[in-house]
Amino acid sequence: MAARERRRRILRREGRGEGLPAPVTRTFQGIPVTRLGLLVLLLLGFWIGRVAAVVPGDIVEFVVAVISAVALAIWYRRRAREYMQMRSANRRREE
Which of 32, 35, 44, 60 pairs as cysteine with 52 (C-beta 3.0–4.6 A)? Predict the structure, then answer.
């Protein structure tokens, strides 16, 4: 019991204590996976398939390329933000 209190005091002093625990999420290659995200992905694939059946191929390829570019940009931005946060936390820890 005393060890727990000591650890809690140390964590509180470092600013890491008394917070709510992070929710446990499933991840795929480090990307959080939610049911809503999977549903959106399935619906997007469905509608791309529907459009591909009606519209000439060049337009479909263009739309898929734009969607892929946007998804890649969002993914890269998140990874860059996480990297910068980790880097600044390491820098603060060293000081």
Answer: 60
List all residues 6 or more positions away from 64 whose beta carbon is below 8 Å from its beta carbon. Answer: 48
Q: With both helix axes pointing from N to C terminus, report the angle between 57-94 and 35-54 in degrees, rounded to the nearest 10.
A: 150
Going by C-alpha positions, the residue among 34, 66, 32 that lies closest to residue 48 is 66
Kindly indicate the confidence band of residue 16, based on its pLDDT and cuts at 50, 70 and 90. low
pLDDT, mean over the chain: 74
State the sign of the Cα–Cα–Cα–Cα dihedral 38, 28, 52, 74: positive
Q: Is residue 74 part of a domain?
A: yes
Number of domains in the chain: 1
Convert the pLDDT of each residue in 23-56 to its tens digit.
556 776 666 777 777 787 788 878 777 777 777 7
Which pair of tokens denotes residue 34? Answer: 């939610």
- Judge whether 40 lies within some domain: yes
Give the domain extent around 30: 26-94
